[in-house]
Amino acid sequence: MNRDNPCPGARAIPIASDLDIVEARTAARTVAACMGFEGADLVVIATAVSEIARNIVAYAKQGEMVLSAVQMNSRRGLQVVVRDQGPGIADVSQAMQDGYSTSQGLGLGLPGSRRLMDEFRIETKIGHGTTVTMRKWLP
Amino acid sequence: MLLPTDYSRIAWAAICLCGRRTLFYLNECNYWYMLWIETNSFHLTICGRDGLAGAVESEGPTVMGVPILKQGEYIIASIQSALTDQDLFQLRDELSACVGKHRSKGVIVDVTMLDVMDSFATRTVRDLAQMVRLRGAKTVIVGIQPEVAFAMVQLGLELGDVATVLDLEEALELLRYESR
After folding, report:
1. Could B84 and A18 be called an inter-chain contact, meaning their C-beta atoms sit closer than 8 Å?
2. Is the pLDDT of residue A67 over 70?
3. CA-based nearest distance B152→chain A, Å
4. Structurally, how many domains does chain A consist of?
5. Most buried among A51, B45, B115, B171, by the most CB within 10 A?
6. How far is B155 from chain A (nearest CA, A)?
7. pTM exceeds 0.90, yes or no
């Protein structure tokens, strides 16, 4: 990490349109690069953010993403929290299966993002919304 | 040699030929120039897009940064920046329309500058190739970066039977070979 120019701290990025999806993945990439992520990891993080952010636009209409640096023992990483107050997911285990989609998508967003990131947690309540928390650790 | 009709087109062509990619694309840039000089059919087509001067000046993500060039019986779309979902849809529809307008036999989509090919982009490119095929032409995707390929595989994405090659030269060769 560059000490003279610290990485942007936790900040919420609103997600409500396809333009915001591009903004969200650009922001994630910028923060990740600043933290020391390189090459494929940057693409992987940006891709996972893109998938999850698109879920918001497709299902919840609006939500937000918060990026932050996390530390656990000696490991440092990037945490991405994407939350919305949308309809929630009725059957999470089904939504986490490859190829399952209720929006004519490819059905790879949630399960694919879980494969891309090191940690993936999803909390959802019908009628209250969904929160996806993902982490990627620095190698 | 066809001369661009107004300044904005010259600027756009200059950006396209030798813009942000100058270093990375040094060879390809020469190649473009070669095409430019050697053929008199190579010119910039806007294919229904207005406000090009604005597109050149602005660098925000609202801009659809995809110049569409015509080279003989092929169309070359070179993606220059991150595209929104709407931009991707627009590109798909415009290329499909361009095939009919120019009686093209092949469409080359250069994605070298794309830093993310997520499930939406992949599906749209697949749809584009299928639409172009139904219009009687073939689509070749150029320049998927290794990191992008890695993320696509992790995500479980595939382009099906859409042809992919590493550079523009190979794409033109493939199209010429297949139309023989």
Report:
1. yes
2. yes
3. 8
4. 1
5. A51
6. 4
7. no
Write the CATH number for B12.
Answer: 3.30.750.24
What ipTM was predicted for this assembly?
0.87
| Alpha carbons B180 and B161: distance in angstroms, whole number | 20
Residue B53 pLDDT > 80, yes or no? no
DSSP state string for B72-126: TTEEEEE--S---HHHHHHHHHHHHHHHHHHT-SEEEEE-TT-S---HHHHHHHH
CA B59, CA B54: separation in Å to the nearest integer? 9
The reply to whether A58 touches chain B by the CB within 8 Å rule is no
- Give the length of chain B: 180
Q: CA angle at residue B157 from B154 to B163, to 5 degrees?
A: 125
Q: What is the mean pLDDT of chain A?
A: 89
pLDDT score of B71: 85
Taking the CA atoms of chain A, what radius of gyration do you get in angstroms? 15
Domain with A95, as residue range(s), is 11-137
Q: What is the mean pLDDT of the segment spanning A105-126? A: 90
In a domain, A120, yes or no: yes
Would residue A5 count as lying in a domain?
A: no
Question: With 50 as the cut, is the pLDDT of residue A108 above it?
Answer: yes
How many residues are given for chain A?
139
**Are B88 and B109 contacting, i.e. CB atoms less than 8 angstroms apart?**
no
Per-residue pLDDT, A91: 86
